[in-house]
Amino acid sequence: MIATPLTNDLVHGVAELEPTPRGITPHRLPTWVRQQFPDPQLLAMQAQPSGARLIFSTTASRIELATHPVRITYRGADRARGRIDVFIDGVLHTRDELTGGDRNEIDLQTGTSSAHPGPAHRTVIADLHPGNKQVEMWLPHNETVELIDLLTDEPVVPEHSLRPVWVHHGSSISHGSNALAPTEIWPVVAARTAGGVELCNLGLGGSALVDPFLARVIRDTPADAISIKLGINVVNLDSMRLRSFVPAIHGFLDTIREGHPDTPLVLVSPIFCGIHENTPGPGAVDPATLGTDHVQFIATGTPGDTAQGRLTLEVIRGALRSVVEHRSEDSNLHFLDGLELYGPADADTLPLPDGLHPDAEAHDLIGRRFAERVFAPGAAFGGVPDRE
After folding, report:
1. Cα(63)–Cα(153) distance, integer angstroms
2. What is each CA distance from 3 to 13, 154, 273, in whole angstroms?
3. Mean pLDDT, rounded, of the chain
4. CB of 26 within 8 A of CB of 52?
5. Long-range contacts of residues 18-24, Cβ cutoff 8 Å, at least 24 apart
């Protein structure tokens, strides 16, 4: 078997690859951000390689990828294991559920955590058809993985894509929370539905908070199309009031425009979330559901309490629409109402299982609707050309 070095030209959708004693760890945020603001939540989320994948061509009949997963679990609230989706010539060939790896268990009642080490995992693809083929190995969206080695029985050639790059930033919903597989999170569904798009996913669970450093990351990342989905984390952390939120959004967009003055940019408001539509945060876990397999989120604010600038999703949707209207000189800036992706009627037929995050079927719905509204001919990203 041939061992291929795991380098930047092989791993797509990440900012950096960090050498480790076992191999390498993909990071979706660069070192300077992780050093400047080493917030545990942010560090954990950016290390989960949502949207990242290995892409190469090969004549190999056998492929083996060794990884060492690290996952976060919550006592009394089991979550599905991460998966590696393998596509051969654009068709799903294997969906490999991770085993082993390290587990960090958090007790939501006490806030304590405990570490449980485990063995590495190996994804094996055997008896592939002869001849050259393109291979995409999508890494798990919900577990950190160290990449240990890539073994094949024939050489591999990294794929250098000329497809337009779509950079997306959002919350845990964009990160893929409650989706079952890495290619079932809504940004990947949208990218695959649109076809011919290279996704860079900066969906970061609990961390879409209009952070200036995220705007600088987007400013400095090559991009042919950009979308920013903000609001739910600002509400459920109760982190801003309307007076500070609106200027922060303007500043966020100003920073992005320093590096991408004419790039098509879509500002997306939150999807429907009943607990926060008219009720400010902070959000919390319903204590009555702790220790069960059906943990629910609740809003702890007072319904309708917006007179002093407290934020709800309804307020934020209006504020984001107004921001775009006040920047009318920017013809490449567009607004998309998140209710067009998932609205009250969808909540009746596809309710949010935990009160906050969409399930697998809703992820698919949101992704397809985003592609229809944003990537279609004549839409915001409809005319984005391939790279030269």
Report:
1. 7
2. 22, 10, 47
3. 95
4. yes
5. 20/146, 22/68, 22/120, 22/146, 22/148, 23/66, 23/68, 23/146, 23/147, 23/148, 23/149, 24/146, 24/147
CA separation for the pair 275, 288 (Å, rounded) = 16
Asked if residue 388 has pLDDT above 70, the reply is: no
DSSP H or E segment with residue 133: strand 133-138
Residue-wise DSSP of 186-246: HHHHHHHHH-S-EEEEEE-TT--S--HHHHHHHHHS--SEEEEE-SHHHHHTT---HHHHH
Do residues 324 and 333 lie in contact, with contact meaning Cβ atoms separated by under 8 Å?
Answer: yes
Question: What tens digit of pLDDT does each residue of 276-329 get?
Answer: 999 999 999 898 887 777 889 999 999 999 999 999 999 999 999 999 999 999
- Look up residue 45 and give its two tokens: 């989320």
Which of 149, 146, 150, 140 minimizes the C-alpha distance to 68? Answer: 146
| Residue 287 contacts residue 281 (beta carbons within 8 Å) | no
pLDDT value, residue 76: 63
Phi, psi of 51 (to 5 degrees): 85, -5
Using only the alpha carbons of the chain, give its radius of gyration: 21
Nearest Cα residue to 73 out of 47, 106, 119: 106
| Predicted structure pTM score | 0.95
Helix (H, G, I), strand (E, B) or coil at 278: coil
